[in-house]
Design a protein that fits this description.
mainly beta, 1 helix, single chain
Length: 242
């Protein structure tokens, strides 16, 4: 599941005018515009401090040629960023992991998946990612900056990541395209919802995986994990914060 990144936002403002009717004239009441949220500050805070959530796990996997459902539980975590180097650039490395167990076809099995995201030390721009197995090295075509102002209804294409087998970047695997959308707070002063979608393509531009990660972010720029899903030809995984 790729990290959050963005380059543009389609912001909007909502106003409601109410006019009082009657012989004595009227007055206008205008609701305030929606609160702006600073996604860049939220991501910087998340990289610096990390986050963790207990989660439930569900989905399906192919067993002996048949799609079989599973369920389980575990912990989703983002470790606090540590100093590193990525593609020759000073960076902060943040490890993302899901650790738990699942029950599938009457048997219990461990689930441990991880990836490391890399962010520019200077401004937390997203630089790229490596998977926990060492079989993929993803590099953003350009460092992906985050918007400093989003509201409910904001959204757009975030950036494109080139995928390779390793840091030599000699064997391409395809690309990943990242986008986001924001949902207005349910209550005044409440957190904004942010959904990050990553679509992964092979070298023939065939869609091979779709990942969606949902977060909330408070007006104090604190990001929390809500849920995530991954879908490939070999199965699906849904992760839901408890």
């Amino acid at each position: 599941m790729k990290s959050m990144a963005t380059v543009s936002a389609a912001a909007f403002a909502l106003g409601l005018g109410l006019a009082a009717c009657g012989e004595g004239g009227g007055s206008d009441i205008t609701m305030p515009p929606p609160t702006d949220f600073n996604m860049k500050a939220g991501v910087t805070n998340m990289v610096m401090h990390g986050l963790s959530a207990n989660v439930s796990l569900s989905g399906n996997v192919v067993v002996n040629g048949a799609s079989t459902s599973f369920a389980g539980s575990g912990t989703y975590s983002l470790a606090a960023g540590t100093s590193a180097t990525f593609n020759g650039t000073a960076a902060l490395m943040q490890t993302q992991s899901i650790a738990g167990s699942i029950d599938v076809a009457g048997q219990s099995a461990p689930l441990n998946v991880s990836a490391s995201g890399y962010y520019a030390s200077s401004d937390s721009a997203f630089l790229g990612e490596t998977d926990g197995s060492g079989n993929e090295y993803d590099v953003a075509q350009t460092p992906i900056e985050y918007p400093t102002s989003i509201v409910g209804g904001s959204g757009g294409t975030l950036g494109t990541v080139n995928r390779y087998t390793d840091s030599t970047m000699s064997v391409p695997l395809g690309t990943s395209q990242i986008s986001y959308s924001a949902t207005a707070p349910a209550d005044s002063g409440g957190p904004i919802g942010i959904a990050v979608t990553t679509k992964t393509f092979d070298n023939q531009n065939n869609l091979t995986e779709t990942d969606v990660t949902n977060y909330t972010m408070s007006s104090a720029n604190v990001i929390s994990f809500s849920s995530a899903s991954a879908q490939t030809s070999s199965g699906t995984l849904t992760v839901q914060a408890n």
